[in-house]
Design goal:
Chain A is of the alpha/beta class. Chain A is built from 8 helices and 10 strands. In chain A, helix 5 runs parallel beside helix 6 and helix 6 packs antiparallel against helix 8. Chain A is globular. Classes of the chains: A alpha/beta, B alpha+beta.
């Protein structure tokens, strides 16, 4: 496996009311291509800050962040925007779809900022929506979709630019058990089938159990970094859940 | 570019009521600007046409009280003798007339009416461009003999005689009765007066019975120069003659005022410019207010759509993309308002022209100025909210929304 991301001595300080808060102290982390990595930790541990830095939404106060061997941590706003557009895909807890906008158009959005033609955008967005199993709902607006369907639109939007790294911040936080495993199954497929890398932040142990590797963050430091020898296969859990639902 | 435009359109249509109210502000401002300019240029055309109609070689002389070592003294009136002197010794003057008038009640067999009663001399019709429609004008004998005869203007005729033929009938002014010998051809309104609202008497007759205290004083002298090119010379000659006759020493101010048609024109143009500028600034204030409305709505829109901005930033929108998106929204608002405003202005102009009879013409320059102003307003008032949106920190924007 080759190195996708490399964090060395990364820290992030905030100034809150005149005093410095160390959201991240000093952090080293390597992420390999094709990994399904879960970041866990209590709230306030710094896992969201880590996610924002990985997602080039925020800049580290110190340390270096290399993505595909290129330093990206200290880039300008527009450069980071291009990196987000080309190399990263985001999946949020609250889905973050544009309201009153169809699934297709929501999925197309990253391509708009890439300057693709309407036709190309349509084709790619359609393919992504088919991939997440929403081919029949492309003209529905978020309000007309269930939570699980909305999150799948968000995944399609993250996939449409074909980025090497998907970042998912509590993607199942708003979903029930069944749809949680639907989404997890989809993410696992994306990792195993197309060699994509997924970094997922969660505080649910069941969700983390599906990852290949679990990194525990506490007080702005990585306190545990464990390989998961036998990750839970979300598709199998899903199958069992469905069977049980049919029985009752 | 097209995508940004479509985005802007969609955002505006999503908040329809708000969009139309904002557009309304710009609409009113723009149409106010266009209508005011149309009004101004229409009034200018009409008034300047009237002044040109006076004839470009016409010179007016009014008596004017003069300032004498700080104190104002009564004016040395102009007299018929002044007129005769000018007629005799001003070579550049072709013709000159003098008259006096008062406003008083005139009685006919049918009705009574307050009108202008004038005492005129032989040159009046010629210099002032009046003519007789029916009946006749005064004879030289009638001028000399203080004859009790009158000619009547069309407006006064309608008030006093209705549809009856006035020629041959009589009118009473004060205690005296005058025979009407002629009806004036219609001359229409000038901006100063209704030129058909009058009765004319020979000046000797007027002085003898209507205004007995005025002596040979007259209210005004009107001369015409030999040609427009002679106007300046004629003016100088009139001034020299009057100063000599009025025994003014060098350094004394004139006790009369000379106005040429050109000076009138300049004067009227200045007044028109002033009024137009005044109205235009009011209209521009309206447009500015509309622009502030746009800025207000855009600021609210940016605040409401912080999450949307966060989403767009997270999937790769650059600052410029966000800036353009909101700038386009502001521009679309103001341009729509501008276009509808011009449309409204055209309608208002047509309605005003047909119902009030005001001369108005839509000025292409005004339209261009209005479009430029509303576009400028869109940019000016859109840039601040758009910058605010573009400068948002993606992490903050995603958290706050």
């Amino acid at each position: 496996m080759s190195r996708l991301a490399e964090l060395r001595g990364v820290g992030r300080d905030y100034l809150v009311g005149g005093s410095v808060v160390h959201a991240l102290r000093t952090l080293d982390l390597d992420i390999e291509q094709g990994e399904f990595l879960a970041v866990v930790g209590p709230s306030g541990s710094g896992k969201s800050t880590l996610m924002n830095i990985l997602g080039c939404l925020d800049r580290p106060t110190r340390g270096t962040y290399k993505l595909l061997d290129v330093e990206v941590g200290q880039r300008t706003g527009d450069e980071r925007a291009i990196i987000r557009n080309r190399l990263l895909g985001f999946i949020f807890q609250g889905f973050n779809l544009l309201p009153r906008t169809s699934a297709l158009e929501n999925t197309e959005l990253p391509l708009v900022y890439r300057g693709l033609s309407r036709k190309e955008r349509h084709e790619k967005a359609l393919r992504a929506l088919v991939r997440v199993g929403l081919a029949e709902r492309i003209h529905h607006t978020p309000a007309e979709l269930s939570g699980g369907q909305q999150q799948r639109v968000a995944i399609a939007r993250a996939l449409v630019t074909d980025p090497p790294l998907l970042l998912a911040d509590e993607p199942t936080g708003n979903l029930d058990t069944l749809t949680t495993y639907e989404v997890l199954a989809l993410l696992q497929e994306l990792v195993s089938e197309s060699g994509r890398t997924v970094v997922l932040v969660t505080h649910e142990p069941e969700v983390a159990a599906c990852a290949d590797r679990v990194v525990t963050v506490r007080d702005g430091r990585i306190v545990l970094d464990q390989k998961n020898a036998s990750p839970v296969r979300a598709s199998e859990v899903l199958k069992k859940l469905k069977e049980r639902a049919e029985e009752s | 570019m097209i995508t940004a435009l479509r985005l802007a359109l969609r955002a505006l249509l999503a908040a329809r009521t708000r969009t139309w109210l904002t557009v309304l502000g710009i609409l009113i401002g723009t149409s106010a600007v266009v209508v005011v300019v149309a009004l101004g240029s229409g009034a200018r055309e009409r008034i300047l046409a009237e002044i040109d109609n006076m004839g470009s070689a016409v010179i007016f002389v009014f008596p004017e009280s003069r300032s004498h070592s700080g104190a104002r003294v009564a004016s040395n009136a102009l007299t018929e003798d002044d007129r005769d002197a000018i007629r005799l010794s001003a070579p550049s003057v072709q013709a000159i007339t003098a008259w006096s008038s008062i406003r008083t009640r005139v009685h006919s067999a049918y009705d009574s009416y307050r009108t202008v009663v004038m005492g005129i001399d032989e040159s009046h019709f010629d210099v002032r461009g009046f003519s007789i429609r029916s009946g006749r004008s005064f004879t030289p004998e009638e001028f000399r003999n203080k004859a009790k005869v009158a000619v009547i203007g069309q407006t006064t005729r309608l008030e006093l005689f209705g549809a009856h033929d006035p020629v041959g009938q009589t009118v009473r002014i004060g205690q005296h009765t005058y025979q009407i010998i002629g009806l004036l051809a219609e001359k229409g309104r000038s901006s100063f007066e209704d030129q058909d609202d009058r009765i004319m008497l020979p000046i000797e007759s007027y002085r003898a019975r209507v205004s007995v205290t005025s002596g040979r004083r007259v209210q005004i002298l009107v001369a015409s120069a030999r040609s427009p090119a002679h106007t300046a010379q004629a003016e100088a000659q009139i001034r020299a003659i009057l100063r000599e006759r009025h025994r003014l020493r060098p350094g004394d101010f004139d006790d009369f005022a000379i106005r040429t048609q050109e000076a009138f024109r300049k004067n009227q143009e200045e007044i028109l410019d002033l009024v137009t500028t005044l109205l235009l600034s009011v209209a521009l204030v309206a447009l500015f207010t509309g622009g502030v409305g746009v800025m207000n709505i855009m600021l609210i829109s940016v605040a409401e759509r912080t999450r949307e901005i966060g989403i767009r930033l997270s999937i790769g929108a650059r600052e410029g993309d966000i800036l353009l998106q909101f700038l386009f929204e502001a521009l679309l608002l103001t341009l729509t308002g501008g276009a509808l405003g011009i449309l409204l202005a055209v309608v208002v102009t047509i309605v005003m022209r047909s119902t009030l009879g005001w001369a108005m013409s839509i000025d292409i320059n005004a339209v261009i100025a209005a479009v430029a102003t509303s576009t400028g307003a869109g940019l000016l008032f859109g840039i601040l909210p758009a910058r605010r949106a573009a400068r948002l920190d993606p992490v903050d924007a995603l958290r706050k929304g």
